[in-house]
Amino acid sequence: MKIGIIGGTGDIGEGLAHRLSHNHEIYIGSRDKDKACETSECMIKALSERGISARCSGVTNQEAVDLGDIVVLSINYKHLESTISSLSGFEDKIIITPVNPIGKSDHFFYDPPVEGSAALAIKRMLPESAKIVAAFNNISAQKWKNLDERLDYSVAVCGDDPSAKKIVIDLVQEVSELRAYDAGPLDVSPIIESITPLILNIAKFNNMKDVGIKFY
Ligand SMILES: NC(=O)c1ccc[n+]([C@@H]2O[C@H](COP(=O)([O-])OP(=O)(O)OC[C@H]3O[C@@H](n4cnc5c(N)ncnc54)[C@H](OP(=O)(O)O)[C@@H]3O)[C@@H](O)[C@H]2O)c1
Fold first, then answer.
1. 185 close to 178: Cβ distance less than 8 angstroms
2. Most buried in the list 27, 48, 84, 105, measured by CB within 10 Å?
3. Among 65, 75, 136, residue to substitute to test ligand 1 (most atoms within 8 Å of Cβ)
4. Residue 211: inside a domain, yes or no?
């Protein structure tokens, strides 16, 4: 599949590219194409040193939308609205959101927009034909990037378009030992997103690193 990653130079975008570029054509998007090319070249080099071939290129965020059958919104919630409004061509695409709106005081807390979640706010921002699927919300980027790491975690996936959700579930299942679970419609996204501040607090208050979740 062709996967465009908006903000693909960041932590989670780069991590996803590390794990998906062997089987898929990845377009790392950025506001700065040179930065995207540099990220892509570094990743291809790192993977080739491990004997893994990667199909990846650096592009602008707009090209990531244009070239991807799937588009991942790999940016912080606070930059979503301005980024989406500067881009076009989302019609009929599968849009994956790993976005978690999180606040921080002496602990992490879920800080959703009025729509109820980042995914539901994205639904408002995008054309009606865009198929929004929430996934990859609860795994640390460091785990994605470190290829020595077995990703023995569960990924909750929710969305309103059954065929788009199935494509994303199949994509998740290809990665290491990840197991995808259909969590229901996009209305479930507040629950999925709010798991992330919970695991960040568990990591913080128990001196743990990169806590993940697994459903049995
Ligand atoms: N990090 C994690 O472990 C993790 C895990 C699960 C989910 N998530 C979610 O994934 C999303 C991305 O997280 P991240 O940690 O990868 O973020 P990040 O590294 O902080 O940023 C991602 C990219 O956003 C772009 N960006 C920065 N400022 C911007 C602005 N003002 N306008 C538009 N784009 C801007 C940058 O790309 P360019 O400068 O190249 O344009 C940057 O590389 C977040 O919503 C987060 O909740 C993160």
1. no
2. 27
3. 75
4. no
Would 215 be classed as within a structural domain?
A: no
Residue in the structure block whose two tokens are 């290491």: 176
Could you tell which of 76, 154, 209 is best to mutate to test the pocket of ligand 1, judged by most ligand atoms within 8 Å of the CB? 76
The strands making up 70-73's β-sheet, listed across from edge to edge, are 55-60, 25-30, 2-6, 70-73, 94-97, 131-134, 154-159, 179-184
Q: 0.90 exceeded by the pTM?
A: yes
Give the pLDDT confidence of 71-113 residue by residue, as tens digits: 999 999 999 999 999 999 999 999 999 999 999 999 999 999 9
Asked, for residue 117, whether it belongs to a domain, the answer is yes
Q: Kindly report the CATH number assigned to the domain that includes residue 25.
A: 3.40.50.720
Which residue minimizes the CA distance to atom 37 of ligand 1? 7
**What domain count does the chain have?**
1
